[in-house]
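Appendix C: a fully annotated inverse folding record. The material below is reproduced so that readers can follow the format used throughout the book. The structure is listed first as tokens, followed by the designed sequence.
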């Protein structure tokens, strides 16, 4: 399924940017033509994104760890690490998302819903490192009238929407990349955004599990 995804995606995703790095199939194929360097075992690791350069240096690459399926056996774990470090085994890989499905949920909600409007209509909250924070945040938002989107959810990535308020929320559990529960919130209407911001500030300790 992953190989088909890469093959059909083409060289561009249009206006949709897939986090850091490029998932362009043409760039990935060009990268494979470099036979001078040692590569990871392709039976275990499938590269699907090449880290791009920025002013701090090159971002790590993204790989599917095909030897580590998710508990339901339907998905592969994701690793974020420079290829040479993966080969050497001397550097531990980050695990930005547990599954490909969670990675896609985060990309779609972030790029299509959360970043389309003015920045003042979008807020990010750090809910701390406690493992119960995602569940508490989910329960809190369902009491406010939010519900799951058609994208589904997992215990790690929970997209929620409130059509009447015109609001979208994305709850992300702690990972090796960001060791805190994150909450991103966007409302199309400024008044609704201010109201929701105020409600969250008033219940910040409850959401953090303090």
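Designed amino acids, in order:
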């Amino acid at each position: 399924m992953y190989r088909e995804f890469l093959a059909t995606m083409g060289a561009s995703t249009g206006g949709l940017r897939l986090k850091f790095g490029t998932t362009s199939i043409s760039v990935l194929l060009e990268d494979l033509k470099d036979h001078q360097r040692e590569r990871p075992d392709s039976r275990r690791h499938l590269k699907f994104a090449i880290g791009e350069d920025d002013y701090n240096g090159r971002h790590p690459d993204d790989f599917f760890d095909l030897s580590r399926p998710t508990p339901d056996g339907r998905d592969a774990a994701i690793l974020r690490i420079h290829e040479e470090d993966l080969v050497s085994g001397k550097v531990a890989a980050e695990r930005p998302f547990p599954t490909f499905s969670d990675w896609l949920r985060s990309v779609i909600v972030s790029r299509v819903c959360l970043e389309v409007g003015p920045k003042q209509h979008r807020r990010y909250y750090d809910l701390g490192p406690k493992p119960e924070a995602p569940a508490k945040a989910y329960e809190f938002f369902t009491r406010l009238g939010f519900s799951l989107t058609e994208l589904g959810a997992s215990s790690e990535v929970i997209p929620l929407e409130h059509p009447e308020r015109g609001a979208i929320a994305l709850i992300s559990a702690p990972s090796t990349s960001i060791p805190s529960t994150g909450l991103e919130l966007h409302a199309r209407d400024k008044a609704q955004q201010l109201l929701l911001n105020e409600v969250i500030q008033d219940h910040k300790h409850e959401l953090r599990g303090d």
